[in-house]
Specification:
Blueprint lengths: L1 E2 L2 E9 L3 H11 L3 E2 L10 E2 L3 H23 L13 E3 L1 H9 L1 H35 L17 E8 L5 H8 L9 E9 L2 E9 L3 H10 L2 E2 L9 H27 L5 H21 L3 E2 L3 E9 H15 L2 E5 L11 E2 L8 H7 L10 H16 L2 H17 L5 H24 L6 H10 L18 H29 L3 H22 L3 H7 L7 H21 L7 H12 L2 H10 L2 H20 L6 H38 L21 E3 L6
Parallel strand pairs: 5-14
Antiparallel strand pairs: 1-13, 2-11, 2-12, 3-11, 4-10, 6-8, 6-9, 7-8
């Protein structure tokens, strides 16, 4: 539950050391450089846009080359759980020395792919022409033949099915016999009639008009020569293009040995682009450059000493200006840090405010487990995450946190599954009855109780857990009030609500309404009931008179206080929201039991066993996927809406240190000799 305190440093150094100093800071990944306030008109900034564009273009070309190598079967890692390749500094420097060689190799890959795309385009075009040509194979004259000196040929299609006699009748409509017209029907396909009509030039116009009025049209693309010859030519062209594509693929695959070098070079250019992006923000004079940035306060002295000793820089610690906010860097223990990603998705806390991650982490894991609530599902989830974390040691920090979080959520799910008596639903009992003829009592009995047998009892417990969760949120608000020495705010906005809500809760528990819901009647001593009434009234009075304490007019103050008392309805709504712990837990168990019932419908024979295994695996895989997603979404919602609604404002900005922009590789830790 800690936010790392930040210190702003101002650095001035000799311009000749600019490159080395920036590269040192970039390799340390410890300073967030911000030069927005360095606006001296006598200082100039470099225009680095063209250099950045070159570096980014080179990195992009190398990335594309790597993707193409992977597309054509050269393994280049990738995937959700991919790890960066380990390289030594010497390996990295050797590759960078020959960076232009690998850029040329990448360009050859991209050029080859461009030619492959062109060849595929030609094949697609030729295939379309072949399809259009297939209906003309019965034509023994060129498609583009227009006729002789004394005749005209009409080669095309008519938009209906016609016989030769029908076409002849249509073409000679209005002409007197004998008509110098010859009709050949080449074929009929897809409600089109392919025809060749030959007529004397003296009746050409009449025949053409008759044909067009009957739906005649010439082919959109006229092939030269005989259709059979055109087909042969197109097929040869397609074969040639396919041969060309195979040759180009081999050319791409021949560069496969360079993929590791491509990765290093890509990360180099990406890091250079980041360096020049920062360099473009640095003001400088003829001999000196200046920069400002944030570092963790505990590291400020070490950074200042390093820059001073190595580069002769002048480093000063700056006071935070009123118009700026220091970045937020969270620091939590090995367990709670796994939930930082959930908090960051909502918004980071502002500096000097409380970090809710520590408290949130425990409730997050507990609530997730209550929602998924099946021991079998929990074991599968925990084992899967544990195996990935064990085998993949170099995952990025965000993914590692997520897998660690789901590992703990899996353990919580296992715990609640045994508490509720659910192991892949009622799989143990169903298997025992179906395949072993067991007819005895439940084999896996719940350690606590089965929610499906007593859902109202679980509902009460869910609301109790919810109230505790909300009280912790209110407690964090109280902590912030005391930290800022706002005693009045603590009493009015925190203590009063503890008394009001806590008193009402103690008054509600012994009532018959609560007893009917819980399935058990509770009785409190008269002293407890009296104390609850006193707590409630004290809370009401404080809220009534202090809710509008910023107003001097007492009538307005009391009116605002009365309005604040209406906030009890919000508390009721928030507490009822925790019924989702019951709803999702029941959904998981019910669906799992239905899957087991469906799987056991085929009996206990060999065929039944095979079908049982298939339905069991597919059904429970789908169920764990859907309900794990539901548990994740609704657990987040309980944190974001109900818990954070009691105290959290967010508004912080993340700490983004100037660092190497590595995507594919990371440096090996080398022992100092």
């Amino acid at each position: 539950m800690a936010i790392v305190e930040m210190q702003k440093l101002s650095v001035a150094a000799d311009k000749k050391n600019r490159k080395a100093l920036l590269e040192t800071l970039q390799s340390m990944s410890i300073m967030q450089i911000e030069n927005d306030h360095l606006t001296d008109p006598d200082l100039q900034k470099m225009d680095t846009r063209s250099s950045i564009a070159v570096f980014e273009r080179n990195a992009d070309e190398l990335d594309q080359a790597l993707k193409l190598l992977k597309t054509y079967g050269v393994s280049s890692g990738g995937g959700l759980f991919s790890e960066p390749d380990l390289v030594t500094r010497q390996q990295f420097d050797d590759i960078i020395t020959n960076q232009q060689v690998f850029m040329r190799s990448a360009s050859r890959i991209l050029d080859a792919q461009k030619k492959i795309d062109e060849a595929n385009g030609i094949i697609q075009k030729d295939t379309g022409r072949l399809t259009a040509l297939s209906s003309w194979m019965g034509l023994d004259i060129p498609l583009d033949w227009k006729g002789t000196k004394t005749t005209t040929a009409f080669i095309g299609t008519m938009a209906q099915t016609f016989t030769a006699d029908q076409v002849y009748a249509l073409a000679t409509n209005g002409l007197t016999d004998p008509c110098p017209v010859d009709v050949n029907v080449i074929g009929v396909e897809n409600n089109l009639t392919y025809v060749c009509v030959l007529c004397h030039n003296k009746i050409r116009d009449t025949v053409e008009a008759n044909l067009r009025s009957s739906g005649f049209s010439r082919p959109a693309q006229m092939e030269s020569g005989l259709p059979s010859a055109a087909k042969e030519k197109l097929e040869k062209d397609i074969a040639d293009q396919k041969t060309r594509i195979e040759s180009l693929k081999k050319e791409i695959l021949s560069q496969g040995d360079s993929q590791e070098q491509f990765k290093i070079a890509s990360d180099y250019y990406r890091t250079r682009a980041e360096k020049y992006r920062t360099l473009g923000t640095i003001p400088q004079s003829e001999n000196v450059f200046f920069l400002e940035g944030w570092v963790p306060k505990e590291k400020a002295d070490d950074v200042a000493k390093l820059l001073t000793d190595r580069f002769g820089a002048v480093v000063d610690e700056e006071e935070v200006r009123e118009d700026e906010m220091e970045p937020t860097l969270l620091r939590n223990n090995w367990f709670s840090r796994n939930v930082e990603g959930v908090l960051e998705s909502y918004g980071l806390p502002q500096p000097k405010r409380a970090d809710p991650t520590f408290i949130m982490s425990f409730f997050y894991v507990i609530f997730f487990g209550m929602m998924l609530s099946d021991a079998g599902y929990g074991i599968v989830m925990a084992l899967a995450c544990a195996i990935i974390l064990h085998k993949k040691k170099r995952l990025n920090d965000g993914l590692k946190k997520m897998l660690s979080l789901f590992f703990w959520c899996g353990l919580s799910t296992t715990f609640w599954g045994f508490m509720y008596g659910s192991f892949f639903g009622d799989a143990i009992d169903v298997i025992a009855k179906t395949f072993f003829g067991y007819q005895g009592p439940l084999i896996l009995k719940p350690l606590w109780f089965a929610p499906m047998d007593n859902p109202m009892r679980l509902l009460v417990w869910c609301m109790l857990f919810g109230l505790i969760h909300l009280f912790f949120g209110l407690g964090i608000k109280g902590y912030e009030c005391l930290k800022s020495k706002d005693i009045v705010g603590f009493i009015s906005d925190v203590l009063a609500w503890y008394l009001f809500v806590g008193g009402l809760t103690l008054l509600l528990i012994p009532t018959s309404i609560f007893g009917s819901i819980a399935g058990q009647q509770f009785y409190f001593p008269a002293a407890v009931t009296k104390a609850a009434k006193i707590m409630t009234w004290i809370g009401v009075v404080i809220i009534l008179f202090m809710g509008g304490r910023d107003k001097k007019n007492w009538a307005i103050r009391i009116a605002l206080g009365a309005y604040d008392l209406y906030g009890i309805s919000g508390w009721l709504s928030d507490v009822l929201s925790y019924s989702r712990l019951l709803a999702l837990g029941l959904a998981t168990g019910v669906i799992a039991s239905v899957i087991n019932m469906m799987a056991s419908m085929f009996g206990g024979g060999p065929v039944g066993a095979v079908l049982f295994a298939i339905i069991f695996i597919l059904g429970h895989t789908l169920n764990i996927g859907i309900n794990a997603l539901g548990a994740y979404v609704h657990t987040n919602r309980l944190q974001y809406v109900e818990f954070f609604g009691k105290f959290y404002d967010a508004g912080g900005r993340p700490f983004k240190p100037f660092k190497q922009a590595f995507k594919y590789v990371s440096f090996k830790e080398e022992k100092q000799s």
